[in-house]
Write a structure and sequence with these properties.
By secondary structure, the chain is α/β, with parallel strands linked by helices. Strand 2 and strand 3 form a beta hairpin. It starts with a strand and ends with a helix. The model has no long low-confidence stretch (mean pLDDT about 95).
């Protein structure tokens, strides 16, 4: 099995994004399954184009997107992607999202195909905090999650896709205002979560 794991580049004035940093440190193979790593731009629609090109190139069986969710204290697999985008923060193109539907003919929401309960259990057993999230927000993370689900329905019916949010790194947190997680714990938790997903 081939698993494509993506992580966003830094955005919003940050000098680092734990998503791509953690993805880069994942093993190249988990339980005999090939791990393909990809950095994606934090840009509406462009992020999905980059991932689609990678799907066509590598023909993965599963795609897991990883993104930063500042303020969360745990690794959080997402349950659902919604057909809506908004936000006041410009993406890395310098533009904000056009508020409204992501795909005019898309469903209001798509549930992940990943076994998120098993993923949370496995991550906790590895000693890393984890819980299911029911909202991926309305920024680029949810946008990419939704677009991959939309592609699955219309172009890649055998593909399984999902999204995992991770906390800030300690270096991103100032004055202890937000929770954070070390990079080594993120990698440990993501590895356990991915292993549960591919072994389900």
């Amino acid at each position: 099995m081939k698993i494509l794991i993506t992580g966003f580049d830094h955005f919003g004035g940050e000098k680092i994004n734990p998503a791509i940093e953690a993805v880069k440190k994942l093993p190249n193979e988990i339980d005999g399954h090939q791990i393909i790593k990809l950095e994606v731009p934090t840009i509406f629609y462009e992020s999905a184009r980059v991932v689609k090109n990678a799907i066509e190139k590598y023909q993965p069986d599963m795609v897991i997107n990883v993104g930063q969710a500042g303020g969360r204290a745990a690794i959080t697999p997402e349950r659902i992607a919604i057909n809506f985008q908004s936000g006041s923060t410009p993406d890395n193109s310098g533009k904000g999202p056009k508020e409204g539907k992501i795909e005019a003919d898309g469903a209001d929401g798509y549930f992940t195909q990943l076994p998120i309960k098993k993923m949370v259990t496995a991550t906790r057993k590895a000693g890393v905090p984890s819980e299911i999230s029911n909202s991926a927000g309305t920024y680029v993370c949810n946008h990419l999650f939704y677009e991959l689900q939309y592609m699955r329905v219309h172009e890649f019916p055998n593909l399984k896709t999902g999204f995992i949010h991770i906390p800030f790194l300690p270096s991103q947190v100032k004055n202890g205002r937000h929770p954070s997680m070390s990079l080594s714990y993120m990698v440990k938790g993501l590895t356990a979560s991915i292993k549960a997903a591919v072994d389900a």
